[in-house]
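Rotation project, supervised by the postdoc (A.L.). Task for the rotation student: set up a whole-complex structure prediction and record inputs and outputs verbatim in this book. Inputs entered:
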Amino acid sequence: SNAAPDAHDWSLLMAAVSTQRDRASFMRIYDHFAPRLQRYLRNLGVAESTADELVQEALLTLWRKAALFDPARASLGTWLYRVARNLYIDQVRREPHWLPIQEGLDRLDHLESARLDSQPESSFDQDLLKQAIDRLPPMQAKLVRMCYLESKSHSEISGELAMPLGSVKSSLRRAFAKLQGSMRAPR
Amino acid sequence: MKPHHHLDDATLLSYSAGALPPALAVVASAHLERCAQCRESQHAADRIGGVLMQQQRVDAPTDDARAAMLALLDREPVPEHPAQPADIVERDDPDRLPGALQPWFGHSLRALRWKRVAPGVQRIRASGIGGGNLMLLRIAPGSKLPLHSHGGSELTMILDGAYDDMLGHFGPGDVADLDGQINHQPVTSPGVPCICVAATDAPLVFSGWFARTLQPLLGF
Ligand SMILES: [Zn+2]
Ligand SMILES: [Zn+2]
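Outputs recorded:
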């Protein structure tokens, strides 16, 4: 069950969901992503029942908005990550303005990508990014995971690791530069 | 006009991870609205989140969970009431506040009701923001702020007017994303007041440059 379809297959499945309301395609997406989104939310400290609800809501969002998915702009994994993160900030952290702001920024990007020749995200890019994450020095990898998977702020990380705030930030900066570099690799 | 001073990569990464304190996230959103370059970086940061989310080891969903999901699909379509997107548009109206600031301060720069807190310094604080402090500051043209350094995480974005310091010239759309190592002395440009939005992650107390700059003036 861990052999995920590649990016091309995900977009075919998404097309079947959006044009034919195809449940079998939807459930293939569900089988791969639902447990991962669930684990992601549980790691952030979300209670199990709330996490289950948010996963269902994320997948329902996909069911409703499949037509808005544009494989040229983001992989399905990136797209669902955003949906789940936004739901977490909206419903668990209860920041009331986060969702409309993200939708506004999204709309700006739609206007822009019509103009710009933006680089599509391919499964090749995803592999390079995975490798780059695996190659991060241990401390940088730890800090990146504390950000994404534990939702810790710079100050919280600084306190927890007894590390100066400036060092936390410069470490994260270096990690991000490496990971961004891997995404800009010549093809 | 394109900004020249951007969000720190560490800030963008945390924004994307949902790990930026709320007040700082408001200022970051306001800058993202004005800055295509930072939006590109934020997309890269979202990709990292997508990969980390997928890399986790998990079990296949249970039959019960799958059945529950399918039952929800049976109840679709429900009438959809999408949240109204924030007023984020590409238009160059100097009076319009960034969409991310509007829930806290309203739409119009001209309509703001300032409170004088010191000679040449006016302020409006956002109330009810969950974590940290968020405020607008209006500093008279040609003012020299005291030399100061920064405490915790602080993010300042210029909305109107400008200032100069050792890091350069900061005009509308620019952000100063500073940590404890910077020691500087901003001087606001002549002509119009410098209006900026500033956030700190310290709860309740003013820390960093606001404390050191304004504490003697404001007496808190
Ligand atoms: Zn920028
Ligand atoms: Zn300062």
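Student's summary: Residues 203-207, 216-220 of chain B have pLDDT under 50 and may be disordered.
Supervisor addendum: Residues B 148, 150, 178, 184, 209 surround zinc ion (ligand 2) (CB under 6 Å).
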